[in-house]
Amino acid sequence: MIIIFAAAVTTSAFVIGIQLPAPVARVDSRLVATPGATIFGEPGVRELAPHHLEARVLARTWQFDPREIRVKVGDTVTFFYTSQDVIHGVKLMGSNVNMMIIPGQVSRLSATFEKAGTFKFLCHEYCGLGHHTMYGEVIVEP
Amino acid sequence: MNFPRIAKYTGWHLITAISALGLGGLFGLFQVLDHAGIDLYPQLQSVGVQSYYQGLTLHGVLNALVFTTFFITGFLNFATSHVLKREPGVPLLNVIGFVVMLVGLLMATVPLLMNEATVLFTFYPPLKAAPAFYIGLTLVVVGSWICGAALIATWRAWRKDNPTTRTPLIALGSLVTVVLWQICTIGLAVEMLTMLIPWSLGLVEGIDPQLARTFFWFTGHPLVYFWLLPAYVSWYGMMPKQAGGKLFSEPLARFSFFLFLVLSTPLGFHHQYVDPGVPIGWKYLHAILTYSVFFPSLLTAFNVAASLEIGGRARGGTGLLGWIKKLPWGDPSYAAQNFAMILFAFGGISGLTNASYDMNLAVHNTIWIPGHFHLTVGTASALSFIGISYWLVPMVTGKQLFNRKLGVAQAITWFVGMLLMSNALHLLGLRFQLPRRTALGASGYLTPEMTPFLIEEVIGGIILVTSGLLWLINMVGTVASKKKLETPLEMPVAEPLEPMLAPKWLDSWRPWLALTFALILIAYGPQLYIQISQAQSTAVGFKPW
Lengths: 142, 545
Ligand code: HEM
Ligand SMILES: [Cu+2]
Ligand SMILES: [Cu+2]
Fold this sequence. Notes:
The complex is a heterodimer of chains A (142) and B (545).
Chain A (H helix, E strand, L loop, with lengths): L1 H14 L28 E6 L2 E9 L2 E3 L2 E5 L3 E8 L4 E5 L5 E4 L5 E6 L4 E6 L12 E7 L1
Parallel strand pairs in A: 2-5, 4-10
Antiparallel strand pairs in A: 1-2, 2-3, 5-8, 6-7, 6-9, 9-10
Chain B lengths: L3 H32 L5 H4 L7 H33 L6 H23 L17 H31 L7 H16 L1 H15 L8 H29 L1 H4 L7 H14 L16 H13 L1 H21 L7 H4 L6 H24 L1 H7 L4 H30 L6 H29 L18 H30 L29 H24 L12
Helix pairs in contact in B: 1-3, 1-4, 1-16, 1-18, 3-4, 3-5, 3-6, 3-16, 4-5, 5-6, 5-7, 6-8, 6-10, 7-8, 8-16, 8-19, 10-12, 10-19, 14-16, 14-17, 16-17, 16-18, 17-18
The complex binds protoporphyrin IX containing FE and copper (II) ion (2 copies).
One copper (II) ion (CU) binds next to loops of chain A.
């Protein structure tokens, strides 16, 4: 029984290529927002290669910066998140991007957008009184 | 047999536990109403509850931390005394343990009620509560250690008088529970004493939130076995008797308890699959270990079901399923616990789901998760404890249970209400990816497709809270009643089907403890070393509520 489950986790981890967040870099949450200090000094989207973008998102109570990320169908986006204050979380609707955003840590996962549309990314960890108002959007254009 | 001293101590624990669940459960009502678009928090402000989140903190702390800990320490000490047929070994430990827990509870309650600790029951820094909250919770844990020591002292005193007798199963299960608790709460103690308390007092400026989470979940997962094992003590050690049957396999029951001791701590990273600061390899190891703890759970399901079948058949049930009808469904204590088991089976399935990576990515921190743990701690534990209270409170007070029928109605309504609410929460989380710990009514996340499920949730929640109220009426009614028990009650103690002797290795603690520590060292040692040595205590505190 246990062996079957172990096999199941192993396949899902390696064969299907499920990715989980893992240590990327450490940052100082007091300084992350300072321009030049870290990659989060200028949050936003930039192109690394054709159809491969990088999004640097800074979370703070109670907003994501940037709030809006525009991409094209077929783009692969590597998301980097960190927090300037308390713990937040992010879940990008309709995708496997689901991470904790912990001050001092950088959370990274990628997603490829196959369909046009607007996808919310929500803060899913309690972060204070306005927690339920904290979300952003990925707008996938055809 | 009557042991007035342990009855008195247990009574203190029960009063506190029952009050905690009574108040904590009430906030569940406001949560489901909020999700259904009925916002009663403006009204609650006049009694001092400022927000959804303050209410949710009270709900989590009072139900999952206070109700459980007070009930468990009281019940296990009672059960151990009665099965060993003696008063507490060192009564002073029982008294001090309770007093320390109570002082801690009062200390933590003040900031909770004053909205100075709206950090939810997981209190992840850098959310920063008033120091009294952390100190109070720490005292509750320290008090529970002392109550655990009291239980061990009772067993040792018995052992001295009975050097060759095998420890009865109920006492063994109780000992495993408290030993597991003493070991696993080290994580929480370190988090509190070296991080949260000095930081909240302003002695240090910063904290490492990732490291704090690792310490928290070191305790946080075994915590669920601390909630469950007392229910297992009753399911294995008492319910077969209540069903008129015998325990199918006693050695297997002992084996399961030891396996839970060994396996429940080294898997806390499965709560941190999506934490950025934990490497994948360690998540993988903890995932495998998580599946291994499914094994003693299966043993338990099989053994307990077989024991109840023996009971049903002894009561004249025949056929493949006919024995089920003959079980004592009219006994509120039995009915509540049997319903708890049935819902727990569903909870086990949804738990397996959570443990796999890809499903975890789909449901982590969605409202699926409260759907899951209302079946486990919110039913398997809570409804079992309620079931136990139907004989324990009469035994402790010497009064007859106020109303048996009301008790059965309570068990049925809990089952129905929980089935509805939990089903709705699971689906809302899986299909619509709604986040948990979120004032959904005030958010922009709800869409018309969700309405049927939100209605199912609120109906289930209202039935559940009604069920809780029926229980409170029965408890208060029993305590206030003038009807004394006609004949003294005996604690139900199940006999083994065959008095076969379990193998020797099931009597010795040493190998099991050695294995426990070895696994913890392997599963946590390297990561703790790395996370501690690379800690960056740079996060200052925030109070965004
Ligand atoms: C009496 C009926 C109950 C109702 C209607 C109820 C309802 C709820 C709901 C809707 C949530 C989700 C809130 C959110 O995530 O925003 C919740 C959370 C929770 N409930 Fe209950 N519940 C009840 C009883 C219990 C019991 C008996 C326990 C445990 C002994 C329990 C423990 C918890 C815990 C630990 C949470 C999570 C709190 C957090 O995320 O910080 N509940 N409850
Ligand atoms: Cu947030
Ligand atoms: Cu949030």
